[in-house]
Amino acid sequence: MHCGPARLHSKANRYSASGARLAANGLAHRLTGRDQVAQPPDTGPAGGLEPTAERSTVMASSNWSTRDGQGRFAEVAVFVPVRPHWHQGKASADADEQSLAERLQLFHYGIPDDLQSRLVSGHVVRVPFGRRTVNGVVMRRSSTSPVATRLILDLIQDKPVLGQHQLELAGWMAAFYGAPLSSCLSLFVPPGLLGRNQDRKPMGPRMDWYLQLAVEDEDLVPRLLQVGRTTRPVRLLDALDGLRQATGRTRFSRTELQEVAGKGHGPALKALADKGLVGGVGGTVHFTLEPAAVVQARLALRGSGRWLLPLQALSGMGGSAWKSDLPGEFRSLEIWRRLQEYGLVFLDRRRRPRDPLAGAAYPRTRAVPLTGEQGAALQAVLAGGNGSNDASHRAWMLQGVTGSGKTEVYLQVLEACLDRGHQAIVLVPEIALTPQTVSRFAGRFPGRVSVMHSGLTPGQRFDVWTDVLDGKVDILVGARSALFAPMPQLGLIVVDEEHDDSYKQSAELWGGATVFYDARRVALRMSESLPVRLLMGSATPSLQTLHRVEQGTVRLLRLPHRIHAAGRGVVRAELPPIELVDMRQELMAGNLSVFSRLLQDQLATALERHEQAILFINRRGTRTFVMCRMCGHVMECTACTNVLTWHSDIERLQCHTCGREFPNPSVCPACGDRRIRYFGSGTQRIAADLDKRFPGVRVLRWDADSAGGQGGHTRIMESFQAHEADVLVGTQMIAKGLDLPKVTVVGAVAADVGVNLPDFRAAERACQLLIQVAGRAGRSERGGRVVIQTYNPDHYAIRAAVRHDYDAFCRAELEFRQQLRYPPYRRLARLIVWDRKQEQARRHAATMMTALEDVRMSLDSGEAIELIGPAPPFHAQLQSWWRMQILVLAEDPVRLIERVPVGPAWRVDVDPVSTL
Fold this sequence. Notes:
By secondary structure, the protein is of the alpha/beta class. The protein is built from 26 helices and 37 strands.
């Protein structure tokens, strides 16, 4: 296909509702592999596509093939902006409005003669697209084209960047999530290859000069004395030094000097005298230089003395170094080229790895004997998936209580995987968990582990991606994006802390991503379509995964008992007892502190025993809101419908959504009264109250404020592990799988936070969070104790957490959701529109709702499709953008959404983890 009609990229080119539905109807059925012939889109009255502008479509079904033909044409998915990219309220000038039908298309291009024998599916190419030049991915070759074509301009890289299974997985994601195909493909492309400025040279390996000494340290000076100019002063100095060594004297007559230096040495002698190297009285020459000074003088006279310092610098760095690591005065390439000519160094330009683990040392660990339960889980995973096409034989959910040894099972499954010549990806939900996970895995498999997450520089990500593609990495540890690394021999995917919401790409903020995928679901798809085992683990699995267990898609493995190390083996341990404190009763008893009397006693005991404690509160800052006692006005962000939080360290009010800061009000902005009061507690206040109540206690805070900057999470965790602090106060980060054996007391200061949010998953998240937090206590022979403080002690999620009975909670919650046909019993899609004007956002939402209602009425599937809204979400305004949302509950919500035009102001989030 040529680059398409110019009208496609004009803001005037908008589908009518009927035209869009007709176009998307045929296209989407082909995308999802349904048995319906796709019809070319009609020209709608609002400027639809011309009938001649036929497009290929990506078949996301399992029978779609990227097998290359021998044709002269290539079908290319181009990387064009499909929605505005906003940065601080400014939209890019080349933002295009496209329907789902347009965003899932391929374009035909001719293949130039010089690429006919080289071009295959998976190549990233540069192509003309209207008046622009853009990058794209070759999906397949074909022998015919329905229209006249333009030629591919060039290959971005000589080798294909994507393999066949990656192309097919991207097509499946585009259909499953209703996302632009180019956005799905970009997840698999190495960092920097598809920058905003696509005319710019793509990122490549970092090249540097590598230097090595060519001689031993003791031979540096003798070799330098052989280079440079051999002048008469140099020969005379050598002669004088030889006379001194032969006679033991420092005074020589002119006759003696003439015998060794010959006649005509007068000018040379004067030159040495002018430099202060010799003296003389009458006919006697004085030569009193120390041997070291003689060497320096000889080097200076030869002109080679300037080479000594850079050589000594290189020697001081172990005899080899990268040029860019040398002191600034020695980085001139001319210096080292000259020294290479003298045979003193080896100089080589090579790729310099940007290894994120360079310089890190990890203590070696060995496999420990497994318990019977661990061994059974290991054997189940190793026995499954061999020659079976049934996905249930390749996907497992390892549900183990906190401290039950799930990580050791992962490690031994990985060992078996590597022994079979396969590679593995280990996903963790947060960057903060990566260092601890890497330490465990790199200690067991030294030299075979690398890491990939958003905290790396683009250059580091590119090099890790390249090393993975070249087969230099056997185990890749990282956040959700690591799932798309090009592992050539992938055999295992491990998803640790499977319940964590961060595995789902968020649609909460405007700009950036346009495909809101769930790494857990994508990993499951990979286990279905590839010979890859999937092992997920959690003490509190998501209800979605437990529902898949009921359906037989995933198999359940259990580790019901906690264990801890004892000598060379392990022993069974008890889960820490949890005590529930009704804070209403504390208030009635006169305790106005944020700490209950029980929690105060437990903290005091732990501190007396030199143990550690964790206090959890899922709010940062000092006070959670500021209110006028006269009129009730609560201070809110001017750009968001979000309550401001008081931060005492900076003495400012801060919005935790957009980051804006405001001065502390002295009078109420609504009524002018001065009776301003501060309410609630955050991590900063808890830390401050600990200092007052327990003088001398060492408190460490772990939240988004304290962990900012490179390596912040690692710094905090290592400090607490080294017992540089007695109490760790933190938000939900402390609940994420950390193994802290010195912690004996855990307190949930405000367990009610999040329980009553207007979201159908609020109870699930609350129960998971409390059980995970409680699991940080008692992970050694010291045992542990947990205190949960609440104003709502009868809530079923809190009650289940106190009993460590997650199964009972799941049964009750799944029954509730089944009655209402909430996920996982139906799928949910969330459509969010953003606009600067509130009324305009409402109009967009009303128009979309009408279009969805029309499509729902036209579908004759017998399926119960429920539309909820339009209504403002929990935060109706974010970063000065007004929002409205529509919820679609259906067996396949994409089937409905793909039939309506979706403009650039909309976000389509399929299977969202929250509706707030």
